[in-house]
Amino acid sequence: MIENLEYIKKFGLKEFVANEKMRWTCPECGGTICVHGGACSSCGKKKE
Ligand SMILES: [Zn+2]
Fold first, then answer.
1. Cβ contacts of 32 within 8 Å, gap of 6 or more
2. Mean pLDDT, residues 13-34
3. Cross-strand pairs, 39
4. Ligand 1 geometric centre to CA of 41 (Å)
5. What pLDDT digit, counting tens, does each position of 26-46 carry?
6. I need a labelling partner for 26 at 20 to 30 A (CA). Which of 13, 32, 40, 47 fits?
């Protein structure tokens, strides 16, 4: 979580949110990747 704060300080909140959104969006179907399980909630693809 400290890493996140450092990132926000460096790049700003807007950039941070965009980055997070990209991280948790499935590249296969655009679904939401579960933060805890690391797999897409729509197609089940696992995040590497
Ligand atoms: Zn998916």
1. 24, 25, 26, 40, 41, 42
2. 94
3. 46
4. 7
5. 999 999 999 888 999 999 999
6. 13
